[in-house]
Amino acid sequence: xxxxxxxxxxxTGGSRxxxxxxxxKFVSEGVNVAFTYxxxxxxxxxxxxxxxxEEIKVLPIKADSSNAESILNAVEQAHRELGxxxxxxxxxxxxxxxxxxxxxxDDFDRLVAVNIRGVFVVTQAVAALMNDExxxxxxxxxxxxxAMFPGTAVYGMTKAAVAGFTRGVARDxxxxxxxxxxxxxxxxxxxxxxxxxQFADFLRSFIALGSYGTKSDVAELAAFLxxxxxxxxxxxxxxxxxxxxx
Length: 246
Ligand code: NDP
What we know:
- This protein is an alpha/beta fold.
- Helix 5 (153-173) links the parallel strand 5 and strand 6 (179-185).
- The protein has helices at residues 17-28, 41-51, 68-82, 105-127, 153-173, 198-204, 215-226; strands at 8-11, 32-37, 58-62, 85-90, 130-139, 179-185, 237-240.
- It contains 7 helices and 7 strands, in the order βαβαβαβαβαβααβ.
- The protein has a 7-stranded parallel β-sheet, with helices on both faces.
- It has a single domain, classed as NAD(P)-binding Rossmann-like Domain (Rossmann fold), CATH 3.40.50.
């Protein structure tokens, strides 16, 4: 249905959580995928060997998104092994809840380095090696749109930044018919935001549909945005949040 067979994707942070589910979804649609991870080497290698077969290549690459050289090497390796890119998913990101009085400058710099600077470096490098009619999808957050409780200022700032970046890049790449969009999840059950925590009980009270979303809820939207059917959607942010910010 999605017509993604034989496309080439680069996914950051594909070892766990939402990124892993996006890798799985793409592979199920016939996409060859290179994905990065920061430290989960064993998990990343297991995932790649589980999903690779004679027809599909899945390439795990260790590359910390806060390190530009490491990202550029990863992009170069993926391009050498898989060819020109059709799809980029900027998924790697750090969470972090701390109020203005609690957040340290080191925390601030780390969040900015991974959630903003890393997205810029990957996007610039991959776009230069992308086929026309490609797709760029960045995983933002509903925290870009609304601060529902204290402690989201810096994280929300980083996610608002990538939503703004998306709008500008959509204009820059429009002549090549490359679409550029942000997917903004609400609470999704992952190691970053487990659905069985005390915080989750508090958070659920804000969600219109009353429950956490699944990784698959995000991966399905990413796959649709990557598909030819989504060719007229660009420069926008789409929430997948069970009505959290409705
Ligand atoms: P997880 O913490 O479960 O997984 C994060 C993934 O990103 C892992 O594969 C991790 O690699 C990788 N990663 C983390 N830091 C880096 C880095 N510096 N360089 C390269 N890779 C890195 O997070 P989620 O799956 O929950 O989140 C994925 C994205 O979705 C993030 O951008 C997050 O902000 C966003 N999001 C998540 C929500 C949620 O409720 N879960 C809600 C809204 C947005 P490794 O395994 O090596 O650590």
